[in-house]
Design goal:
The protein is α/β, with parallel strands linked by helices and about 260 residues long. The chain is built from seven helices and 13 strands. Strands 6, 7, 8, 9, 10, 11 and 12 form a seven-stranded mixed sheet that branches. A six-stranded mixed sheet has the order 5-4-3-2-1-13. Helix 1 packs parallel to helix 3. The radius of gyration is 17 Å and the shape is globular.
C-alpha cells in the first residue's frame, strides 16, 4: 500500500440542472485537484436527489458519464459520485468509479430511501463494489446504505476485506446526528478509514443539507469535518497508520464469520 490522496468536494447542487452542476464541479476540480488524487463528489451530483428519473436518467453513454471520463482523463484523477442511470428498462441511483484511462465501474445503491419514495422510482442493487487503487481496497456505498451495517461489514477471511469505506450522500441536516454518529461507528467496527461526502444547501423540496462531510480514521477519530459551506479538502491517507492500528488492536481477528448472499 502507498499513501492515498483523497479530495472531498462538498457543494450545493442546482436542482435538476445537469449543465449547471457539471460546469460548477468542473471548475472546482480543475482549480483544486492534482494528478493521482481520488476525487469524491456527492450523491446524484448532477441533479440533486430527484424522484424524476424518467426525465433525468441517462445511459452509460450519456452526458454525465462522458463528462466524468473527460475530467478524469484531463486531470489524471479517479473520479467518483452517483448519478441517475437507466439500464435495461430500470432506473438506478448508480455510483460511478471512473479511472483516467476511461475504465468505468459502478455500484447500484442497495438500500433505497422509502421514506422519500426512492424505492418507487429506482431499482435496488444487489452487489457491492470494492475497488482497488495504490494497494488500497475501497468499499463504495451511497447515503442510506449507511444505516445498514451488515452491508458495509468486513467479510474477513485471512485479512480485512477493505481499507477505506466511502459514502456519497444527500443526507438532510435534520438527521445529521445520525449521519455523523454512524460514520464514526462504521470506522470503529470495520477498523478502516471512512469518508462521507455530503451536499450543502436547500433542495427544491425545501430540505436543507448541512454537509457534515467527514474523514474518520480506523480508531474512530475525526480527522476532518466541515459543515454549512461549500468546501474542497485534500488529505493523504497513511497506510502505516492503518496497519499499526490493526496490529496493535487486532479486534478484526475475532469478528463473526458470515457471508452476504445476493438475491
Amino acid at each position: 500500500m502507498h499513501p492515498l490522496s483523497v479530495t472531498l468536494i462538498q457543494s450545493n447542487l442546482v436542482w435538476e440542472n445537469k449543465a449547471a452542476n457539471l460546469a460548477h464541479f468542473g471548475e472546482k476540480i480543475q482549480a483544486k485537484t492534482a494528478p493521482g488524487q481520488l476525487v469524491i463528489l456527492p450523491e446524484m451530483f448532477s441533479t440533486g436527489f430527484s424522484m424524476n428519473p424518467a426525465q433525468l436518467a441517462e445511459t452509460m453513454e450519456g452526458t454525465t458519464v462522458q463528462w466524468m471520463k473527460t475530467i478524469a482523463a484531463e486531470q489524471k484523477i479517479i473520479l467518483t459520485g452517483s448519478a441517475i442511470i437507466e439500464e435495461e428498462g430500470h432506473f438506478y441511483n448508480r455510483l460511478l468509479w471512473v479511472l483516467p484511462n476511461g475504465t468505468v465501474a459502478h455500484y447500484n445503491k442497495r438500500h433505497l430511501f422509502a421514506f422519500a419514495g426512492e424505492n418507487q422510482f429506482y431499482a435496488a442493487g444487489n452487489k457491492r463494489l470494492i475497488a482497488a487503487v495504490n494497494g488500497w481496497k475501497i468499499n463504495l456505498q451511497i447515503c442510506y446504505d449507511l444505516r445498514f451495517p451488515v452491508w458495509a461489514r468486513q467479510q474477513i477471511q485471512e485479512a480485512p476485506e477493505f481499507d477505506l469505506l466511502v459514502y456519497v450522500a444527500n443526507w438532510p441536516e435534520r438527521r445529521n446526528h445520525a449521519w455523523k454518529t454512524l460514520l464514526i461507528a462504521r470506522a470503529i467496527e470495520n477498523q478502516c478509514y471512512v469518508i462521507g461526502v455530503n451536499r450543502v444547501g436547500e433542495d427544491a423540496n425545501g430540505i436543507n443539507h448541512s454537509g457534515d462531510t467527514m474523514l474518520i480514521d480506523p480508531l474512530g477519530q475525526v480527522v476532518y469535518h466541515c459543515a454549512h459551506e461549500e468546501a474542497i479538502s485534500t488529505h493523504i491517507l497513511d497506510p502505516q497508520h492503518l496497519q499499526d492500528i490493526r496490529q496493535r488492536f487486532p479486534f478484526w481477528k475475532d469478528a463473526d464469520q458470515f457471508n452476504i448472499y445476493h438475491i
